[in-house]
Structure formats: C-alpha cells, structure tokens
Automatic annotation (TrEMBL):
Residues 90-102 have a biased composition (Low complexity). Residues 76-85 have a biased composition (Polar residues). Residues 35-114 are annotated as: Disordered. The keyword Cell wall biogenesis/degradation does not apply. InterPro entries: PAP2/HPO (IPR000326), PAP2/HPO_sf (IPR036938). SUPFAM superfamilies: Acid phosphatase/Vanadium-dependent haloperoxidase. GO terms for molecular function: sphingosine-1-phosphate phosphatase activity. This is Sphingosine-1-phosphate phosphatase 1a.
Length: 451
C-alpha cells in the first residue's frame, strides 16, 4: 500500500514537472512562439522527456533550453517568430515556409503585440527573442504579478511600510524575507533543476533563465510575505479577516501563476515553492516576537546578527558556482543584518517608538491631502537617500575589494563572479542600505520635520 502511494506520488510529480503543461497554459493565455524543428517531435511537438534530477548550470557559452539541455549558441534557438517551422505551445507544428507565412498573417492583427523580455539574462547577457502576445491584459497582469515577487519590489515595499505605516511589522517581515530567500536559494543550489525546456515553453522572461528553478523562490517570497503580513497585522490593525485573507491569497496566487506564464517554472516547482514557504512561515511566525526582542534588547545581539547572517552567506556561496541567486541571497541577508543592527541601535538610543500595547488595535487615519503629501515626501526623500547610499557604497566597495584581492576592476561583472568580491560587496553595500532605511532615514525625517 505504501509503495503504491509512493509510486503514484512520484508519477504525479513527474507529470506536473513536464514543460508541456507550461506551454499549454501559455497558449491558453495568448502567448505564441516559434521554434526550430530539431528540438521537437513533429507529431507531438514535445521535447525529449524531462526527468527531474541533478543538472549542470548553463554557463555563458551555452544557450539554456530548459532541464539541463543545451544547444550550440549559433543554432536558431529562439522564443520569437523566426525560422520556417512553427511550433505552437500546445504541441502542434508546421514545417513548411508557406504554412509559417500563413500563420504569421493569421496571428499578427490589431489585437496582437510583439514583445521581448524586459531584462536580459543575468548570467549570459542574452536579451531573449521576440514573441507574440494575443492577450495584452494577461501579459500586463502577470508582468505585474511576477514583479511582486522580485527583490526590487521588496526593497521599495519594506521602506514604505516602515516609514509610513508600521515599523514593527516591516522589520519582522524583513526577517522572514531574508530567511525565506536563503532557504529557497540554497535548496535550488542543492536540487539543481534547470528551467522548463524551450521549446515547447516560450520564454517571456529570461533574466533568471540560466539559474536553477526548484523550488520557485518567487512563489516562496510571494506567499510568505503576504501571509506573514496578514498574520502580523490582523488583530494589530482593524480590518475584516476575510478582506486580509483574500488580499494575501490573491497576492500569492498572482505571483505563483505569473511564474508559469513567464515560462520560468513548472507547475510542480510553483506548488513546491508555495508549500515550502508555508512550512518556513509556520516555523518562524511563533519566533518573530522573540527574535525582534532579542535584536532590540540583548547586549550580544550585534555580534550574533553579524555572525549568523555572514555564516549563512558563506553556506549559500559554497553550494555552487557563481550565480545571480547567490548575489540575491547575500543581498537579502545583508539587508536583514543592517536592519537588525539598526533596530538594536534605535532601541538602545530610545529612537524606536513602537505604539504601546494599550493603543491596539490600530486604525488607519482618515486620508487627507496633508497625509498623502507627507507620506509621498517621506517615501521619495527616503528612497532617494537609499539610492544615493547604494551608489556611493557600490562605487567605493567594488574597486576597493578588487584592489585588495589583486583583481582587475575594469570588468565589474567578471570581478563579481569571485566569491571574495561578491560576498563582501553585497554584505557591505546592502547592510549599510538596510541600516540607513531603519535608522538614518528616520533621523533625516525628524530633521526635516516629516516624522
């Protein structure tokens, strides 16, 4: 009985991992692409069978086509409208040039848009290929959804929440974000599955295409953050339970589904990321109050913060070769360390003014022009200060580290592929950014009478 269950579970996982399901979903949402004949079977349109397992990361000399496969960089491996063979995401194909031309005439109309990935591949520099969008609403919706799981969104979201709404909730969310990203990216580097095969999948996004994909860290952060936000604010702020739960669930579902739409993850990887983040959140949620209190009050907190966050970064960087995911992990850990150190400093100096428990639950103030203007000013001035801080620290740190370790500083991308440059660079720059967000910028607001 147990063996039958395990066998059925493995079969289900293999089924959900198949890239053809991603391609069908893209086709349903109006995403089209053409691919060369040799990567597909003429009858089924599907690529060679893909089985989950250990994969080799695609380096800049290869072109990633999904689960471990690579082709000659000169081959016409594209996601856009190119070549004589049209392979639709549902698996059907046409090898004649006349059929391809007819398909072009049929597909390109006033409701169809040609598009390319917004950002080039972070590892290879590949800009991606053109593809056709037949449903512009879903394209913009899922582009927005995938941005809700990107690190850049959280770098903007956390400061806004800290400066304008609730500092306690924001700094606890940063703890969950940093740990969630560390666990997810480290798991990717241990499992080592590559992205869904293309073809049949259309690569709407290529920025992370050369990175490992199991589990989806977008699904993890896009699930952990909204549900943690809901659990931290419900009871602390006055709003209906159903409203908060629906917002958290909608946020999570939008991010998860967007990763399938973008061709970056299989259904299995997204489901795994969703469940994995809930497991991590279930572990950390009861500990957040104790962690926050330790950061504020314990005399040894600064040492523990630095030691723990740097140690986690060393673990993450030792799992595999250089990649964007390692940099993202160090960036999150550095931001978390800086925010935690600033929390300790604020508390010790009496600058941390959380509302007393007697004032709970909190209510949103009535919206007025003055409130909106002050909030916007705090956000714009604060973000500008953080951007200047980041720019200055980056300009100073990278040349200094290159000089320290005897590396050429004229090629920043190549220099940052060295762990001894990338790890301290990320930690130094983003720990200072995190510290500035939590401690320095609020002091600036006081000086400007915007607190």
């Amino acid at each position: 009985m147990a063996n039958d269950f395990v066998k059925s579970f493995v079969q289900m996982c293999n089924y959900l991992q198949q890239p053809c399901h991603v391609a069908r979903f893209q086709n349903l949402c109006g995403v089209r692409g053409t691919f060369p004949d040799k990567s597909t079977k003429p009858e089924s349109g599907q690529s060679e069978p893909d089985c989950p397992g250990l994969r080799k990361r695609v380096q800049s000399s290869d072109v990633s086509v999904g689960n471990g496969a690579a082709v000659d960089a000169t081959a016409p491996q594209v996601n856009g409208r190119q070549g004589d063979t049209t392979v639709r995401p549902d698996g059907s194909s046409s090898s004649s040039s006349a059929a391809a031309a007819a398909a072009d005439d049929d597909d390109v109309d006033s409701d169809t848009a040609r598009a390319k990935p917004l950002r080039k591949n972070s590892l290879t520099g590949d800009v991606g290929q053109e593809f056709l969008i037949h449903n512009k609403f879903l394209f913009y919706l899922f582009t927005f959804g995938t941005e809700l799981g990107n690190e850049m969104f959280f770098i903007v979201f956390f400061p806004f929440l800290f400066w304008n709404i609730d500092a306690l909730v924001s700094r606890r969310l940063i703890v969950v974000w940093a740990w969630n990203l560390f666990v997810g990216q480290s798991t990717k580097d241990m499992v080592r599955w590559s992205r869904p095969a293309s073809p049949p999948v259309v690569k709407v996004e290529v920025f992370y295409n050369s990175e490992y994909s199991m589990p989806s860290t977008h699904a993890m952060t896009g699930t952990a953050i909204p549900f943690c936000l809901f659990m931290l604010t419900y009871g602390r702020w006055e709003y209906p339970f159903l409203f908060g739960f629906c917002v958290a669930l909608g946020w999570s579902v939008l991010v998860c589904v967007s990763r399938v739409y973008m061709g970056m993850h299989s259904i299995l990887e997204v489901i795994t990321g969703f469940l994995y983040s809930l497991l991590i959140l279930a572990f950390f949620q009861p500990l957040l109050d104790k962690i926050d209190t330790f950061y504020m009050t314990d005399h040894y907190a600064p040492l523990m913060i630095i030691f723990s966050h740097v140690s986690l970064g060393l673990v993450a960087f030792s799992l595999d070769s250089w990649s964007t995911s390692r940099g993202d992990t160090a960036q999150a850990l550095g931001t978390g360390a800086g925010a935690a150190l600033a929390t300790h400093v604020n508390y010790q100096l009496g600058l941390l003014l959380d509302p007393p428990l007697s004032s709970l639950p909190l209510t949103l103030p009535s919206i007025s022009i003055g409130l909106v203007v002050r909030s916007l000013l705090r956000f714009l001035i604060g973000v500008a200060a953080l951007l200047v801080t980041r720019m200055v620290m980056k300009a100073v740190t990278i040349p200094f580290l290159c000089r320290l370790f005897g590396l050429a500083s004229d090629d920043v991308r190549r220099a940052r592929q060295h762990m001894k440059v990338e790890l301290p660079y990320r930690y130094i720059v983003y720990s200072v950014v995190g510290f500035s967000c939590v401690s320095v910028v609020p002091l600036l607001f006081r000086i400007l009478n915007l607190a």
